[in-house]
Write a structure and sequence with these properties.
Strand order of the largest sheet: 1-2
CATH topology: Growth Hormone, Chain: A
Number of helices: 9
Oligomer: single chain
Distance between the termini: 5 Å
CATH class: Mainly Alpha
Structural class: mainly alpha
Shape: globular
Helix content: over 70%
Protein backbone atom coordinates (compact mmCIF):
# COMPACT_ATOMS: atom_id res chain seq x y z
CA UNK A 1 0.00 0.00 0.00
CA UNK A 2 1.18 3.52 -0.74
CA UNK A 3 0.16 6.91 0.66
CA UNK A 4 -2.51 8.77 -1.26
CA UNK A 5 -1.49 11.83 -3.24
CA UNK A 6 -2.30 15.12 -1.59
CA UNK A 7 -0.95 18.12 0.24
CA UNK A 8 0.40 16.01 3.10
CA UNK A 9 2.45 13.72 0.89
CA UNK A 10 3.72 16.60 -1.25
CA UNK A 11 4.74 18.50 1.89
CA UNK A 12 6.66 15.46 3.12
CA UNK A 13 8.54 15.26 -0.16
CA UNK A 14 9.40 18.96 0.06
CA UNK A 15 10.83 18.43 3.55
CA UNK A 16 12.98 15.58 2.24
CA UNK A 17 14.15 17.83 -0.60
CA UNK A 18 15.20 20.46 1.93
CA UNK A 19 17.20 17.88 3.87
CA UNK A 20 18.91 16.76 0.66
CA UNK A 21 20.47 20.20 0.37
CA UNK A 22 21.77 19.95 3.93
CA UNK A 23 23.15 16.46 3.35
CA UNK A 24 24.95 17.48 0.18
CA UNK A 25 26.46 20.49 1.95
CA UNK A 26 28.15 18.05 4.34
CA UNK A 27 29.08 15.61 1.58
CA UNK A 28 30.62 18.21 -0.70
CA UNK A 29 32.12 20.68 1.77
CA UNK A 30 33.38 18.30 4.47
CA UNK A 31 33.45 14.64 3.47
CA UNK A 32 34.63 14.66 -0.12
CA UNK A 33 34.21 16.70 -2.08
CA UNK A 34 31.60 14.30 -3.38
CA UNK A 35 27.84 13.97 -3.64
CA UNK A 36 25.80 11.27 -1.94
CA UNK A 37 22.33 12.00 -3.34
CA UNK A 38 22.99 13.69 -6.69
CA UNK A 39 24.75 10.77 -8.31
CA UNK A 40 24.92 12.49 -11.71
CA UNK A 41 27.41 14.93 -10.25
CA UNK A 42 29.14 12.14 -8.38
CA UNK A 43 29.62 10.09 -11.55
CA UNK A 44 31.31 13.09 -13.15
CA UNK A 45 33.46 13.61 -10.05
CA UNK A 46 34.55 9.98 -10.28
CA UNK A 47 35.41 10.38 -13.96
CA UNK A 48 37.38 13.57 -13.28
CA UNK A 49 39.15 12.06 -10.28
CA UNK A 50 40.25 9.00 -12.21
CA UNK A 51 42.27 11.15 -14.58
CA UNK A 52 43.87 13.03 -11.70
CA UNK A 53 41.75 16.16 -11.34
CA UNK A 54 43.03 18.22 -8.44
CA UNK A 55 41.24 18.03 -5.09
CA UNK A 56 38.93 15.22 -6.13
CA UNK A 57 39.11 11.83 -4.44
CA UNK A 58 38.35 8.76 -6.56
CA UNK A 59 37.90 6.81 -3.32
CA UNK A 60 35.23 9.20 -2.02
CA UNK A 61 33.35 9.26 -5.31
CA UNK A 62 33.64 5.50 -5.76
CA UNK A 63 32.49 4.71 -2.23
CA UNK A 64 29.55 7.09 -2.62
CA UNK A 65 28.47 5.41 -5.84
CA UNK A 66 28.87 1.94 -4.32
CA UNK A 67 26.91 2.92 -1.22
CA UNK A 68 24.14 4.39 -3.33
CA UNK A 69 23.92 1.23 -5.44
CA UNK A 70 23.70 -0.97 -2.34
CA UNK A 71 21.05 1.28 -0.82
CA UNK A 72 18.96 1.42 -3.99
CA UNK A 73 19.08 -2.35 -4.57
CA UNK A 74 18.44 -3.22 -0.94
CA UNK A 75 15.71 -0.59 -0.71
CA UNK A 76 13.98 -1.94 -3.80
CA UNK A 77 14.03 -5.50 -2.49
CA UNK A 78 12.92 -4.50 0.99
CA UNK A 79 10.07 -2.23 -0.05
CA UNK A 80 8.87 -4.74 -2.64
CA UNK A 81 8.86 -7.46 0.03
CA UNK A 82 6.82 -5.28 2.39
CA UNK A 83 4.45 -4.36 -0.44
CA UNK A 84 3.90 -7.97 -1.49
CA UNK A 85 2.72 -8.73 2.02
CA UNK A 86 0.13 -5.96 1.80
CA UNK A 87 1.84 -3.61 4.22
CA UNK A 88 2.66 0.09 4.01
CA UNK A 89 6.15 0.21 2.52
CA UNK A 90 6.46 4.02 2.71
CA UNK A 91 6.97 4.08 6.47
CA UNK A 92 9.62 1.30 6.56
CA UNK A 93 11.39 3.06 3.68
CA UNK A 94 11.60 6.32 5.63
CA UNK A 95 12.64 4.48 8.78
CA UNK A 96 15.45 2.65 7.00
CA UNK A 97 16.69 5.91 5.54
CA UNK A 98 16.59 7.54 8.98
CA UNK A 99 18.58 4.70 10.56
CA UNK A 100 21.29 4.87 7.91
CA UNK A 101 21.55 8.66 8.18
CA UNK A 102 21.59 8.39 11.95
CA UNK A 103 24.45 5.88 11.83
CA UNK A 104 26.31 8.18 9.47
CA UNK A 105 25.77 11.09 11.83
CA UNK A 106 26.98 9.11 14.84
CA UNK A 107 30.15 8.04 13.02
CA UNK A 108 30.73 11.63 11.90
CA UNK A 109 30.35 12.75 15.51
CA UNK A 110 33.34 10.62 16.49
CA UNK A 111 35.71 11.85 13.79
CA UNK A 112 37.54 15.14 13.54
CA UNK A 113 36.02 16.18 10.22
CA UNK A 114 34.58 19.50 11.31
CA UNK A 115 36.60 21.65 8.94
CA UNK A 116 36.14 21.71 5.15
CA UNK A 117 39.09 20.66 3.03
CA UNK A 118 40.54 18.04 5.35
CA UNK A 119 42.03 14.76 4.12
CA UNK A 120 39.65 11.93 3.28
CA UNK A 121 40.13 9.14 5.83
CA UNK A 122 38.59 5.73 6.29
CA UNK A 123 36.09 7.22 8.71
CA UNK A 124 35.08 9.76 6.09
CA UNK A 125 34.52 6.95 3.61
CA UNK A 126 32.36 5.07 6.11
CA UNK A 127 30.15 8.12 6.62
CA UNK A 128 29.94 8.63 2.86
CA UNK A 129 28.91 5.00 2.35
CA UNK A 130 26.19 5.18 5.01
CA UNK A 131 24.76 8.46 3.77
CA UNK A 132 24.88 7.38 0.12
CA UNK A 133 23.09 4.14 1.03
CA UNK A 134 20.41 6.20 2.76
CA UNK A 135 20.03 8.31 -0.36
CA UNK A 136 19.74 5.16 -2.46
CA UNK A 137 16.85 4.03 -0.27
CA UNK A 138 15.29 7.50 -0.47
CA UNK A 139 15.40 7.49 -4.25
CA UNK A 140 13.59 4.16 -4.36
CA UNK A 141 10.96 5.44 -1.93
CA UNK A 142 10.31 8.68 -3.78
CA UNK A 143 10.17 6.96 -7.15
CA UNK A 144 7.55 4.57 -5.82
CA UNK A 145 5.54 7.45 -4.33
CA UNK A 146 5.64 9.37 -7.65
CA UNK A 147 4.82 12.88 -6.46
CA UNK A 148 5.02 15.01 -9.64
CA UNK A 149 7.89 17.51 -9.83
CA UNK A 150 9.24 16.66 -6.36
CA UNK A 151 11.90 13.94 -6.81
CA UNK A 152 13.64 15.08 -3.55
CA UNK A 153 17.23 14.50 -4.72
CA UNK A 154 17.48 16.42 -8.02
CA UNK A 155 16.16 19.75 -9.26
CA UNK A 156 16.93 19.71 -12.97
CA UNK A 157 13.61 18.23 -14.07
CA UNK A 158 11.38 20.40 -11.84
CA UNK A 159 13.38 23.49 -12.83
CA UNK A 160 13.03 22.64 -16.52
CA UNK A 161 9.32 21.99 -16.09
CA UNK A 162 8.93 25.23 -14.15
CA UNK A 163 10.56 27.26 -16.90
CA UNK A 164 8.79 25.35 -19.67
CA UNK A 165 5.42 25.83 -18.03
CA UNK A 166 5.90 29.59 -17.97
CA UNK A 167 6.11 29.74 -21.77
CA UNK A 168 2.67 30.57 -23.24
CA UNK A 169 3.07 28.14 -26.14
CA UNK A 170 4.53 25.32 -24.00
CA UNK A 171 3.80 21.69 -24.77
CA UNK A 172 0.69 20.64 -22.87
CA UNK A 173 2.49 17.53 -21.70
CA UNK A 174 4.67 19.75 -19.52
CA UNK A 175 1.65 21.01 -17.65
CA UNK A 176 1.03 24.47 -16.26
CA UNK A 177 -1.19 26.40 -13.91
CA UNK A 178 -0.68 28.09 -10.53
CA UNK A 179 -0.84 24.87 -8.51
CA UNK A 180 1.56 22.94 -10.73
CA UNK A 181 3.99 25.82 -11.11
CA UNK A 182 3.85 26.49 -7.38
CA UNK A 183 4.79 22.91 -6.59
CA UNK A 184 7.74 23.08 -8.97
CA UNK A 185 8.89 26.39 -7.53
CA UNK A 186 8.73 25.05 -3.98
CA UNK A 187 10.65 21.91 -5.01
CA UNK A 188 13.49 23.91 -6.55
CA UNK A 189 13.44 26.44 -3.72
CA UNK A 190 13.62 23.72 -1.07
CA UNK A 191 16.77 22.25 -2.60
CA UNK A 192 18.42 25.68 -2.73
CA UNK A 193 17.30 26.56 0.79
CA UNK A 194 18.61 23.28 2.16
CA UNK A 195 22.01 23.79 0.57
CA UNK A 196 22.13 27.39 1.74
CA UNK A 197 21.15 26.42 5.28
CA UNK A 198 23.65 23.56 5.39
CA UNK A 199 26.53 25.70 4.13
CA UNK A 200 25.65 28.51 6.55
CA UNK A 201 25.49 26.18 9.54
CA UNK A 202 28.88 24.72 8.62
CA UNK A 203 30.24 28.24 8.29
CA UNK A 204 28.91 28.98 11.77
CA UNK A 205 30.86 25.98 13.13
CA UNK A 206 27.90 23.65 13.60
CA UNK A 207 29.23 20.11 13.57
CA UNK A 208 28.62 18.16 10.35
CA UNK A 209 27.17 15.32 12.40
CA UNK A 210 24.31 17.60 13.46
CA UNK A 211 23.51 18.32 9.81
CA UNK A 212 23.18 14.58 9.23
CA UNK A 213 21.21 13.86 12.38
CA UNK A 214 18.62 16.53 11.57
CA UNK A 215 17.64 14.88 8.23
CA UNK A 216 17.63 11.51 10.01
CA UNK A 217 15.23 12.85 12.62
CA UNK A 218 13.11 14.49 9.91
CA UNK A 219 12.71 11.23 8.00
CA UNK A 220 11.89 9.38 11.21
CA UNK A 221 9.27 11.94 12.23
CA UNK A 222 7.67 11.80 8.78
CA UNK A 223 7.56 8.02 9.06
CA UNK A 224 5.84 8.21 12.45
CA UNK A 225 3.31 10.76 11.14
CA UNK A 226 2.35 8.59 8.17
CA UNK A 227 2.27 5.46 10.32
CA UNK A 228 -0.20 7.17 12.66
CA UNK A 229 -2.52 8.24 9.85
CA UNK A 230 -5.78 6.31 9.42
CA UNK A 231 -5.23 3.52 6.90
CA UNK A 232 -8.49 3.87 4.98
CA UNK A 233 -8.29 7.61 4.43
CA UNK A 234 -4.62 8.04 3.63
CA UNK A 235 -3.47 4.81 1.97
CA UNK A 236 -4.34 3.06 -1.26
CA UNK A 237 -3.21 -0.10 -3.10
CA UNK A 238 -0.20 0.23 -5.43
Amino acid sequence: MKPKAGVGLTSAMVVLTLTTGMIEAVSFLVLGPTFTAVQTGNLLFLAFALIGAAELSPAAAGVSLAGFVVGAVAGSLFEAYVDIHGRRWFVPGLTTEALLLGCGGLVAWRISADEPGGPVTGHHLLVIALVAAAMGVRNVTTMRVQVPDVPTTVSTRPLTALLGGLVPAADRRIGSGPRVEGRRFVSVGAMFAGGLLGAWLLHEAVRPAVLLLVPAASALVLGVVFWAMPRRRTWEPD
